[in-house]
Amino acid sequence: MRDRRFVAVHRGGPLDHESHAALARWAADCAERVLPLFARHCKDTRPAHAIAVLQAWAAGEAKTGLAMKASLAAHAAARSATDPAAVAAARAAGQAAGTAHCADHCMGSLLYALKAFAADGRRIEPEMKRQLGKLPAHLGDQVSSGLMARLGKLKLANPHAPDAETFRLQNRLRGGRVRRIFEAWQPTFTKPFRPAKAKWCGPMKSAIA
Q: Which domain holds residue 71?
């Protein structure tokens, strides 16, 4: 079942077109950040094209159907890749392009981008903090809470991302979106760091698409 907060107005939901376009631009940026990890291993241009089509859609220059086709093509490119970082980067582009059709796909763009960074051996916390900081204020909470429901199912190739140091950092950022998200990630670790006065967020019920 989709999160109603991400359902567009023309489908009977509360998400206006301006907010939908803002999420699309944000998703495109998330995917574009890891596109070099795909290009490093593959010459396939479908992920890059998917991002470009989404940017055009957000600007009112492309139809939703075109973005949906570009999304499927990017996912096909992911299936043809073998490097884990490249696969995740192409998935990020596919999820991003899917935002034109269903806005909640924007979260998949960030999740797969984080997975690509982790597979490449990079720390993911700075990227998550950067991207969440770029969200418009009125969309931050719904995206953050949506991510919490999905992070528990994200399988990272880098076991050190996030680590106890990250949890300590987020514990100092009391009330911040990034801290709440990383708290929700704790059930994926055998011996998680437990920040003081942290609240249990409940079992994860959703996985990324």
A: 4-188
- Into how many domains does the chain fold? 1
Any domain includes 207:
no
Q: Is residue 91 part of a domain?
A: yes
**8: phi then psi, degrees, rounded to nearest 5:** -70, 155
Question: Is there a domain that residue 198 lies in?
Answer: no
The C-alpha angle 160, 33, 30, rounded to 5 degrees, equals 90
Q: Please give the structure tokens belonging to residue 36.
A: 């070099």
Q: Which pLDDT tens digit goes with each residue over 129-188?
A: 899 999 988 898 888 888 877 766 666 554 444 444 334 333 433 345 555 555 555 444
Q: Determine contact, residues 127/117, Cβ cutoff 8 Å.
A: yes
Quote the pTM value. 0.75
Whether residue 208 is contained in a domain is answered as no
